[in-house]
């Protein structure tokens, strides 16, 4: 090969090596100034690595990653890098950037209005949020508004003023191994809830709350397709814990544990899993454990093509509701192979009589009853399987052997050592703290 040929080959190899190095570059940051500069310089394949500490700022993204080279924003030690957005409307801003991965950050304290479009953190298309905490927002902690192909994994979503997670108009969403707890836990004064611009407010026992009948609690999904919730642990939210409300399709609740969610004023508000106003479906609830919620453990209302199987009800209710609402019909509901322990099946609003099972295409078969089977149906109470079969036509098939009962997660809340308070994070020796940004 000629000298010119060798020179050309060396030049191409050098350029390729430098390009690869640029794509894999990691910005290591320890204060707000360095973080801002790193975010402005990001390219596909780059990483921003945050040292332990509290960053009083909002992340502002200006570049997208790609499918092969996503941009990664990561805590050096999961749970020890805190984005404190106190006084700011958001903790992570973007303008349509895609293919972003965020790992191990804590987002807290945004002063944001309610609903998904104004959440403290709003994801974009092809985002993965792994091991993050979203807490103490005045509105929604995490919002997925009109996005596609989003994964939320191993998250903690707690103590947010309106709701933990809000999903609206989105497609292909996976939320897995996530704790959703103590959301809509109230404001001390009316002035505080007014500053959060929450118009639907309710006073109760000296505190102010977002009205659960509007949109509050653990998580709400609306007008979305292909949403999968796996191993969600939802407890002590005020309002419905997991709520699929209005025109959702292809939604799956799998192996979730939902318990001790609470009412505010009305007796239905603390629902565990709420499937409401879904004209098409399908929606499935499988392998979930619902127990001791103040509202019904699982409620199906004005929806079609809903399957409930292999769930475990303890000290709770399975409720059916059939209000007259435009464009909906309560139809094609199947509940099989569930376990009821000190639990009942009941109906609320709508027309319910001995023929409703056939008219509405409701199947209730092969369920296991630990203790007496009880149906509160259309204002009457039927006790025992013989009476239920004779009057309502349900439970004619013998139950199959029950699957293993879902076990409750060991941790009821996020371990306190995983999420530092500002004073802990700033004073941790040898952890990089925050330098004076001035």
Feature tags:
39 strands; 438 residues; 12-stranded parallel sheet; 23-stranded mixed sheet; single chain
Give a brief description.
Helices cover 13% and strands 38% of the residues. With 438 residues, it is mainly beta.
Could you explain the architecture of this structure?
This protein is mainly β and 438 residues long. Helix content is 13%, strand content 38%. The chain contains seven helices and 39 strands. It has a 23-stranded mixed β-sheet that branches. It is elongated and about 75 Å long. The N and C termini lie far apart (57 Å). The N terminus and C terminus are likely disordered.
Structural class by SSE content: mainly beta
Q: Which ranges are low-confidence, i.e. pLDDT below 50, for 5 or more consecutive residues?
A: 3-21, 410-438
Profile the largest sheet.
23 strands, mixed
Helix content: 10-25%
Radius of gyration, Cα only, in angstroms? 25 Å
Mean pLDDT: 88
Shape: elongated
The counted number of beta strands is 39
- Proportion of beta-strand residues: 35-45%
- Distance from N terminus to C terminus (CA atoms, Å) equals 57 Å
- Discrete helix count: 7
Q: What oligomeric state do the depicted chains represent?
A: single chain
């Amino acid at each position: 090969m000629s000298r010119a040929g060798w020179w050309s080959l060396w030049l191409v190899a050098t350029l390729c090596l430098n390009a690869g190095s640029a794509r894999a570059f990691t910005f290591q940051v320890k204060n707000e100034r360095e973080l801002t500069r790193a975010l402005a310089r990001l390219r596909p394949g780059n990483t921003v690595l945050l040292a332990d500490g509290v960053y009083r700022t909002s992340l502002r993204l200006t570049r997208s990653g790609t499918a092969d080279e996503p941009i990664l924003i990561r805590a050096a030690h999961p749970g020890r890098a805190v984005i404190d957005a106190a006084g700011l409307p958001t903790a992570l801003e973007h303008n349509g950037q895609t293919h972003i991965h965020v790992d191990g950050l804590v987002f807290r304290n945004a002063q944001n209005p309610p609903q998904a479009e104004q959440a403290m953190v709003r994801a974009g298309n092809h985002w993965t949020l792994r091991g993050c905490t979203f807490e103490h927002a005045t509105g929604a902690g995490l919002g997925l508004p009109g996005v596609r192909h989003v994964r939320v994994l191993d998250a903690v979503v707690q103590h947010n003023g309106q709701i933990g997670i809000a999903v609206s108009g989105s497609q292909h969403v996976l939320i897995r191994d996530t704790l959703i707890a103590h959301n809509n836990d109230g404001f001390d004064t009316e002035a505080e809830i007014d500053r959060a611009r929450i118009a639907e407010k309710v006073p109760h026992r000296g505190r102010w709350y977002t009205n659960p009948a509007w949109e509050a609690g653990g998580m709400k999904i609306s007008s979305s397709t292909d949403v999968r919730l796996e191993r969600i642990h939802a407890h002590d939210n005020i309002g419905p814990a997991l709520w699929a409300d209005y025109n959702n399709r292809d939604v799956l609740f799998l192996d979730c544990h939902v318990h001790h969610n609470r009412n505010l004023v009305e007796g239905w508000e603390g629902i565990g899993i709420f499937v409401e106003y879904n004209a098409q479906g399908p929606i499935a609830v499988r392998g979930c454990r619902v127990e001791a919620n103040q509202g019904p453990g699982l409620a199906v209302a004005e929806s079609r093509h809903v399957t409930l199987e292999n769930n475990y009800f303890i000290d709770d209710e399975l409720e059916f509701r059939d209000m007259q609402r435009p464009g909906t019909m309560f139809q094609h509901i199947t509940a099989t192979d569930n376990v009821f322990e000190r639990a009942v099946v009941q109906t609320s609003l709508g027309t319910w009589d001995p023929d409703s099972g056939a008219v509405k295409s409701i199947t209730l078969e092969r369920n296991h009853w630990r203790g007496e089977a009880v149906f509160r149906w259309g204002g009457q109470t039927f006790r025992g399987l013989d009476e239920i079969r004779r009057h309502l036509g349900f439970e004619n098939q013998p139950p199959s052997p029950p699957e293993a009962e879902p076990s409750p997660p060991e941790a009821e809340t996020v371990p306190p050592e995983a999420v530092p308070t500002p004073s802990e994070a700033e004073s941790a020796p040898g952890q990089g703290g925050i330098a004076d940004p001035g």
